[in-house]
Amino acid sequence: MAAWAYFAFSATVANTCIGISMFLTGVLLETISPRMMGLAGGLLYISLGTAYFLWAMRINMKREHQILSKDTIEA
Q: Which terminal residue of the chain has fewer beta carbons within 10 Å of its beta carbon, N or C?
C-alpha cells in the first residue's frame, strides 16, 4: 500500500470517528447530563485511539517481519 493511500485511509477513519462521536454527543445530550456525556465521550475517544494505535503497530510489525525475512533469505 502506498504511503498516500495509508494516509488517506487513516484520515478517513479519523474523520469518520469524529463525525460519529459528534452525532452521538448531540443525541445523548438530550437524555443525560453534560458532565456524564463528557466522561463517556472522553473514554470512547481514548479507547478508539488506543485501538487505532494498536492496529497501526500490528501492521508495522508485519511489514518489519516481512522485510527482515527477505533480508535473511537473501543473505
A: C
